[in-house]
Amino acid sequence: MFEPRNVAAPAQVVTVSELTRLTRELLERSLPLMWVAGEISNFKRYDSGHCYFTLKDAQAQVDCVLFRHRAQLAGWAPQDGMQVEVRALATLYEARGKFQLNVETLRRAGAGALYEAFLRLQARLEREGLFDPGVKRPLPRFPRSVGVVTSPQAAALRDVLTTLGRRMPGLPVFIYPAPVQGEGAAARIAGAIGLAGARGECDVLIVCRGGGSLEDLWAFNEEAVARAIRACAVPVVTGVGHEADTTIADFAADVRAPTPTGAAELASPGREEILRTLSRAGHRLLRGTRRGLEDRMQRLDTLSRRLTHPGERIRTQLADLRHLAVRLRQDGRRRLEAARERWSRLAAHLKHLNPRLVLERGYSITEAGGGIVRDGSRLAIGEDVKITFARGWVGAQVKRKG
To answer: Looking at residues 223-249, what average pLDDT do you find?
Structure first.
């Protein structure tokens, strides 16, 4: 950094490059970005797109440079003799040691008051919620008709109609004429927007005009137009001026396009897009139909395997009956064998209890008074008894007892 020379110190020598650099840094630190008013002279636009001109008044002048990327945003063509206001940074072009202004933006003189009014209205309507993204409506994807609010003589209308005709031939277009600048234009534009919403002839409304100065576009910065847009019964897309131009109407619109042509593109589906959409839908429908048929054919095959011819069913039932009869016979034989076995066991038990078998072993049964005698002491001397043997019986009389 170059330091101020001390009288007592040896002289400090700097190069020209250092001097111009220090001067530029001092200028840029000392002078902020500011608005400067003057008249354009010696305006030149080079092939590079950069613009060079002189800004002057009655007592002085200063060289200015407007680089291409900023010149493209101007939206109008500066010319010699124009009174303008530039927002610029004071600096030094070091290569030539030349004082100049690096211009960021410029406007025609007198636009400052309008711009301030623009900012005040924007802030007030924004606080009111008129620009709230939550109230924005989506544009219909496939509108049945489109409305256009603009001047019938405007080039913007031709651009819109050409774009709509290219993108969607046969789409009905309703034009609601209104002047787009001059005294009373804002009220006429607001009225046309209200009429379009009241008639209900269109599904989406384009509000547009070509480029111009801030004064030319001022009708679209009026509060009446912004409120008409928000009150409109159908979605509104604006295409006012060039891409760099932004109006109050743009903030209020449901969708803002950079140009009238852009608004027409947003408001209408492209024919190619529709054909692609239909093609994709057709392919999905075909795949779905084919898949449905294949599923049904497979189900039919499954059901056909489960179907049985009536004759086959009868044969199956007869076979089942024969099997049942065999099982019944087998079960009957098993039950009969079990009954015979049980009978044999019972017969064996009964055989062991048969008194005749006892008599066969030499025993006899003595009966008296119609009953079997089990206690000899109960018989009286001379009482008649019956004695049964294994074969035959005899009558006897008690002679003695013990």
So the answer is: 92
- Classify domain 125-134+143-272 at the CATH superfamily level: Succinyl-CoA synthetase domains (3.40.50.261)
Kindly report the average pLDDT of the chain as a whole number: 87
Domain assignments of the chain as residue spans, ordered by start: 16-109, 125-134+143-272, 357-397
User: What's the chain look like in SS3?
Assistant: CCCCCCCCCCCCCCCHHHHHHHHHHHHHHHCCCEEEEEEEEEEEECCCCCEEEEEECCCCEEEEEECHHHHCCCCCCCCCCCEEEEEEEEEEECCCCEEEEEEEEEEECCHHHHHHHHHHHHHHHHHHCCCCHHHCCCCCCCCCCEEEEECCCCHHHHHHHHHHHHHCCCCCEEEEECCCCCCCHHHHHHHHHHHHHHHCCCCEEEEEECCCCCCCCHHHHCHHHHHHHHHCCCCEEEEECCCCCCCHHHHHCCEECCCHHHHHHHHCCCHHHHHHHHHHHHHHHHHHHHHHHHHHHHHHHHHHHHCCCHHHHHHHHHHHHHHHHHHHHHHHHHHHHHHHHHHHHHHHHHHHHCHHHHHHCCCCEEEECCEECCCHHHCCCCCEEEEECCCCEEEEECCCCC
**What's the rounded Cα separation, in Å, for the pair 229 and 189?**
10
The pLDDT score that the predictor gives to residue 111 is 62
Lookup result for tokens 């589906």: 269
Q: How confident is the model at residue 221 (pLDDT cuts 50, 70, 90)?
A: very high
CB atoms inside a 10 Å sphere around CB 352: 9
pLDDT at 110: 67
Describe the crossing of helices 185-199 and 223-231 by its angle, rounded to 10 degrees. Answer: 10
Which range has the worst mean pLDDT, 19-33, 193-207, 276-290, 343-357?
343-357
Among the listed residues 96, 122, 148, the one whose alpha carbon sits nearest the alpha carbon of residue 268: 148
Model confidence, pTM: 0.50
Which tokens sit at 388?
């049964």
Measure the CA–CA gap between 207 and 150, rounded to whole angstroms: 6
Give, in words, the CATH class of 16-109: mainly beta
Identical fold, 16-109 and 125-134+143-272: no
